From TrEMBL:
PANTHER family: HYDROXYPYRUVATE ISOMERASE, INOSOSE DEHYDRATASE. It holds the Pfam family TAT_signal. Residues 1-33 form the signal peptide. It comes from Salinimonas profundi. PROSITE patterns: TAT (PS51318). Gene3D superfamilies: Divalent-metal-dependent TIM barrel enzymes (3.20.20.150). This is Sugar phosphate isomerase/epimerase.
Amino acid sequence: MHDLPQPFTRRQFLKAGSAAAALCALPLSFSLAAETASRRAGLQLYTLRDWMQVSVPGTLKLVAGVGYKELEFAGYFDQSPKQIRKLLDDEGLSAPSAHVPLTTFQESVNKVIDTAQAIGHKYVVVPYLTPEQRGSSIDVYKKLADDMQRWGEACKRADITLAYHNHDFEFQRVDGELPYDILLNNTDPKAVSFELDLYWTVKAGVDPVQLFNQHPGRFKLFHVKDMDKKGEFADVGTGTIDFGAIFKHADKAGLAHQFVERDQTQDKLATIQQGYKALTQILRQR
């Protein structure tokens, strides 16, 4: 999920904002029905990183207009924790989770905790390892597991949960071992949880349900991200991943929150609208 931002103009942002404002103007009965049905439908804001660069307040207002109630942050774009919290409160939003760079944890887990408490995050997530951070030895993941155990214990004392977000490389063998297995098996479930990115898991040829059966209760967060027939990104509900079958096992997974995400999209408004609609339907069927 860490490609370079796509070009995005202020005019495009304002146009998208106007569309969201129109959504807000729908009849009250429709709005209440949508809110009840999708009270836990979340959005990973990395999907809208271009918009966040233009205007954090405008982006959050737009997202609320679409109908989302829960957000997962991927950067605060020069806004202070106090400012972020106020913006969320003003729009009737909450942010139960945030992606926090590995280097930030390494610098100070206490700072991560302080920020999370100020904003209201209940989960803080290690989102990605760069190729340099991964290195070429399985020992990298063994050390990371030790570090996450320590950070997770500190987070737990503050009533926050540490989680790890996967891509596909964690399912590729290094020195004969799977990095994901190392992280799962060398951390305490009471201290470290996992955010399963359904796209990258399926992309790696791994069955999410099999992971739930092997490690019940470990997967507190999902990234709901779809795949087209070519194996590329697709709007949720338009691709090939059977989310209904996966969500039938959500209780075994330990799922608490789920976030729509699409790493790259040419029409961000259409993507988050479709994601909201599809995730709402999935949650209704749980």
